[in-house]
Automatic annotation (TrEMBL):
<dbReference type="InterPro" id="IPR016425">
    <property type="entry name" value="IspG_bac"/>
</dbReference>
<keyword id="KW-0560">Oxidoreductase</keyword>
<dbReference type="GO" id="GO:0046429">
    <property type="term" value="F:4-hydroxy-3-methylbut-2-en-1-yl diphosphate synthase activity (ferredoxin)"/>
</dbReference>
<dbReference type="Pfam" id="PF26540">
    <property type="entry name" value="GcpE_C"/>
</dbReference>
<dbReference type="GO" id="GO:0019288">
    <property type="term" value="P:isopentenyl diphosphate biosynthetic process, methylerythritol 4-phosphate pathway"/>
</dbReference>
<dbReference type="GO" id="GO:0051539">
    <property type="term" value="F:4 iron, 4 sulfur cluster binding"/>
</dbReference>
<dbReference type="GO" id="GO:0005506">
    <property type="term" value="F:iron ion binding"/>
</dbReference>
<feature type="domain" description="IspG TIM-barrel">
    <location>
        <begin position="9"/>
        <end position="276"/>
    </location>
</feature>
<keyword id="KW-0479">Metal-binding</keyword>
<feature type="binding site">
    <location>
        <position position="341"/>
    </location>
    <ligand>
        <name>[4Fe-4S] cluster</name>
    </ligand>
</feature>
<dbReference type="InterPro" id="IPR011005">
    <property type="entry name" value="Dihydropteroate_synth-like_sf"/>
</dbReference>
<dbReference type="InterPro" id="IPR058579">
    <property type="entry name" value="IspG_C"/>
</dbReference>
<feature type="domain" description="IspG C-terminal">
    <location>
        <begin position="292"/>
        <end position="393"/>
    </location>
</feature>
<keyword id="KW-0414">Isoprene biosynthesis</keyword>
<comment type="pathway">
    <text>Isoprenoid biosynthesis; isopentenyl diphosphate biosynthesis via DXP pathway; isopentenyl diphosphate from 1-deoxy-D-xylulose 5-phosphate: step 5/6.</text>
</comment>
<feature type="binding site">
    <location>
        <position position="298"/>
    </location>
    <ligand>
        <name>[4Fe-4S] cluster</name>
    </ligand>
</feature>
<dbReference type="InterPro" id="IPR058578">
    <property type="entry name" value="IspG_TIM"/>
</dbReference>
């Protein structure tokens, strides 16, 4: 993967673009007017690894709450950059509440939702002027479902005059791209520095997303925020996001990403952060938590013990990473193998930094442990899980301190 040479935009203390690492974003789904609930969810997302968090700013009360939210976050040592998500009335809210405009680290502006007809340009200009006045970056975020209808109508009329008109799908793709690029051009013309602009053009279709971002990467050098919008729930959302965004990231396209999953009822919001981390880590783009390599199981592994140990090990690593990353630089690159039988168990365990090969059905009830390719101990009995966790901790102490 070769990172494309793009402008660098600073959002809070985070640098986006150029050769800086791909940044993970998420968004709250609380009512922003509820300060306590929103702060709680932002902290949850931040602790899970979200490096930028977006919040909805849709009412005067939400704009006022934003100021309190920022203050509460800073009071507990959380300086995660906050992005204000504005639609329809953002120009009014930013003007009415300058302290909100100041508290936010970036504004997200949707060109399709800043106003209608003759008001569109003026209201977009007001938001850009606020960004200039407060020295804030903006994300010009175009969405498939809220495309600038005036621009689309104009392009449709022009398309009808062509000897070989484009298909409706091709026209929609081009309208997305032009909406973003023309809006960025207008912002620059007004006086917003180029290194204050990030662009996104989100669709809910994987092939459309790939096409649009490949074109954006060729036609501008603004940093690109990558995401499949309305990706869906569960495995559908994970697979669709990974397929499209993984392909683009492999080409070096994408400077900041969000996995837009629909949470299951009652499910925590942090799953989208974990999926984003795992996508970047499995592609060797960034490392966040030691990877657990585990076999899928087969007729040789009729016991569920290796599955339980793999789950416990993965949870143990993720739970301890907030402390470990302070004391053990590089530990996030570690690979741990938890294997279920003798077929691939010893081989995978030897190739990992540390690994355990559990006994399969009919095998001798012992579990050899390998560190840096060498067998160091053989575990047996009822306390293998706790003993293996202790071995992992001792290994980390020796190798990463």
């Amino acid at each position: 993967m070769i990172k494309k040479n793009r402008l660098v935009v600073k959002v809070g203390d985070i640098h986006i673009g150029g050769h800086h690492p791909v940044v993970i974003q998420s968004m709250t789904n609380t009512d922003t007017e509820n300060v306590e609930a929103t702060v709680e969810q932002i902290l949850e997302l931040w602790k899970a690894g979200s490096e930028i968090v977006r919040i909805t700013v849709n009412t005067e009360a939400a704009a006022q709450a934003t100021i309190k939210i920022k203050e509460k976050l800073l009071s507990v040592g959380c300086n995660v950059p906050l992005v204000g998500d504005f639609h329809f009335n953002g120009h009014k809210l930013l003007k009415l509440y300058p302290d909100c405009a100041k508290a936010l680290d970036k504004y997200r502006i949707n060109p399709g939702n800043v106003g209608k007809g003759s008001k569109r340009e003026d209201q977009f200009s007001q938001m850009i002027q606020c960004a200039i006045d407060h020295d804030k970056p903006v994300r010009i975020g175009v969405n498939w479902g809220s495309l600038d209808q005036d621009l689309l109508a104009k392009m449709m009329d022009q398309n009808q005059q062509l000897s070989e008109p484009k298909s409706s799908n091709d026209l929609m793709r081009e309208a997305l791209i032009q909406s973003a690029l023309l809006s960025a051009e207008a912002a620059v013309k007004q006086g917003l520095a180029k290194d204050k602009i990030i662009i996104s053009c989100k669709t809910s279709d994987t092939q459309d997303l790939i096409f649009v971002y490949e074109q954006l990467a060729k036609r501008c050098n603004f940093p690109l925020h990558l995401g499949l919008t309305e990706a869906g729930m569960g495995t559908k959302g994970v697979v669709a996001s990974s397929a499209s965004m993984g392909y683009l990231l492999q080409q070096g396209i994408g400077d900041t990403i969000r996995i837009s999953l629909t949470p299951e009822p009652g499910e925590t919001r942090i799953k989208e952060v974990v999926v984003a981390q795992e996508l970047l880590q499995t592609m060797n783009i960034r490392s966040f938590v030691p990877l657990v390599i585990a076999c899928p199981g087969c007729g040789r592994t009729t016991s569920t013990f290796f599955q339980e140990l793999a789950k416990q090990t993965q949870s143990y690593l993720r739970e301890n990473m907030p402390e470990w990353k302070k004391s053990y630089p590089g530990v996030e690159n570690m690979k741990v193998a938890v294997m279920g039988c003798v077929v691939n168990g010893p081989g995978e365990s030897k190739m990992a930094d540390i690994g355990i090969s559990l006994p399969g059905t009919g095998e001798i009830p012992v579990a050899p442990v390998y560190e840096d390719g060498e067998k160091t101990v053989t575990l047996k009995g009822d306390n293998i899980a706790d003993e293996f966790k202790n071995i992992i901790k001792n290994y980390i102490d020796k190798k990463y301190r």
